[in-house]
Amino acid sequence: MNASITLDRAPLGTPLVIWSTHPDAVVARRLSRFGVRRGARLTVVQKLVAGGRVVSVGGGRLALDAGVLAGVAVAPEASAA
Amino acid sequence: MTATGTRRLKVAPALPTIQAACHGPAGRGAGEGAPVVALAGAPNVGKSTLFNALTGLRATTGNWPGTTVDVGRGVWRFRAGDRVCACAHCEGTCAAHQPSEFTLVDLPGAYSLDPISPDEELTRALLVDAPAAERPDAVVVVVDAAHLARSLHLVCQLRESTHRVVVALTMTDVARQAGVEVDSHALAEAVGCPVVVVDPRRRTGLDNLTRFVRESLARPRPTARVVALASDDLAREDERFGWIEAAVDAGTTTSGAQRMSFSDRVDRVALHPVAGPLLFLAVMWLVFQITTTVAAPLQDALDGLFTGPVSDAVRAGLGLVGLGGTWVEGLLVDGLVAGVGMLLTFVPLMALMFVLLALLEDSGYLARAAVVSNKLMRSIGLPGKAFLPLIVGFGCNVPAISATRILGDARQRILTALLVPFTSCTARLTVYVMVGTIFFGRAAGTVVFVMYLLSILFVVGVGLALRATLWRTMGAEPLVLDLPPYQAPTLRLTASVTWTRLQGFLRTASGIIVVTVCAVWLLQSIPTQQGESFGSVPVEDSVYAAGARAVAPVFAPAGFDAWQTTSALVVGFVAKEAVISSWAQIYAVTEPAEGEDPGDLGAAIMGAFEESSGGHPLPAVWAFLIFLMAYTPCVATVAAQHREIGLRWTLFGIAVQLAVAWTAAVAVFQIGRLFW
What we know:
Chain A: Keywords: Iron. The complex is a heterodimer. By secondary structure, chain A is of the alpha+beta class.
């Protein structure tokens, strides 16, 4: 069953797995450099102004705006497994 | 290791090579035949800090991405006595045994060899696109242990060629705090090249790094990593990430569950949607308040030194050699000593500002400031990271223009380069402090803070105007910004960055300012009327005053059309530091008006504003400060713009700056005089 949601709607602090990355190839390439790619694990750790979020991925912290978050589909780690 | 001075080389976009970068006319590396070692790595992994530690030079460093936008080079010296090669019959003649120095080339930060910005293109050009014979002899890839996977991408791509690669592993302490332990031997086994743990900030592990690089050079070039045939770019990337994942698994052990780090806890406040912007404003206000209040007594002491003992000593010396009361005394005492001396009184102020900015950079806070200001930046069509060159502009506009190269899109770079001059640099700060102290006394710190807020408003306002007109078709770039962990600033790094910037200021003082002061003195010494002689003409009868009077009516609607004020602004086009020296020169040689304290520069300036504004000095002063903030910063910035965005856009920028500055100044005075 596809239980994915977009990253902007993901709850804080829940381990997530990336279901599909951003549809824009250029954005997807930039994200992949920081480890945000299909199959990677991440956690949303903080809300930012204007719908942005800080995500924890690969041991680092990445600030993403609402537009980027809306293009990335994730699923809770438990359901993805 | 030997300090030889900082050398940064801008490499032309056409066919750049390591050889061109190392042996071009603009600088030099190690001696002829010395191996060339390139320093590569993702942004913000400590690459420039390592470069400085190995060469003793002072490349610009900071705890935020994009610090290196040029190619830097220096000499990496070491003891050559130890035999490191394994050649059977070597008698000290092989490449690894012979040299006692390398040429070290500091490449711009790059996550990958598939570039998405000009600085990444440069790194690729030097490592991949250059002919094989012109590539570096070895590449040291700086890898952040706390973000191992993303740092290894470059190692992975370099291992697909025959580069000799040595990994310099940094930030192991940060990784340990996050519960990640890196086994450098296991990692070396997995990536197929030596891995050396270094701490460039504390300068540990450097001897080991030297040894590994020499050993690497003693061996033949390695064979390229075998890569399975990939059907497309996506499949190739999947293969790379698989390789990276395997290397990370082999080289690291993670203990315990992920817990909230110190940086996470600080970011709860620093990035909070409401508290974050307020904290940002508070930090900026504190910086300017500390700068102005702490520096004030030091400035007074220096001022006393130059107007008193130094001037007296020069006069006495000239008197002894029979030049007392001549034009030579005028040039030296009223020109050079008064002008340069006044400028040097601002050294403590600028040093404090540079220290505080260096602390903010090194701590990692500036990356948070970029996130907090992202929404503001997007409103003018720029990505959050465009904030970084703009914040650098508050220190000095010239490096800020160079820093626009971290932006991938050419139109964003031009727009940012056009906005940088509206960021109020420290040279303008000196004038704010002086004028603020004269007219507003103890509220000078608040005046300075308001000027910086206005500067931000001008950046946004001009940005919105350009966005709505020439840049209306440009889309907004999404925010994808790495947040480095907070770290305690080190004394050595802070002192080094501060000294580098202060040196830049002092070079300006001893170069442009001295020339300007002499030119102003010369123009003030040439009479416009017959009967006056060279060097003894009252300044109001000089060619200088005549020129200023011709321009002055332009500023009548803004309330500051005194020729003395106008001439200071004209000189300020060369450098803003010269505004103060120009005033000091003019008022030092002008006959004092009746009842005026001849030694009081403040009273003279106040009198000029009182008169030119028709009894509304405060609106006129605000108009003057706003004009000063918004018009062309200095010739060095113009030159930097010319280099980065071309002549046409540079001239366009100057026209925009003058139009905006004049319009805003007139509006402020005309509205202000209704109330004050």
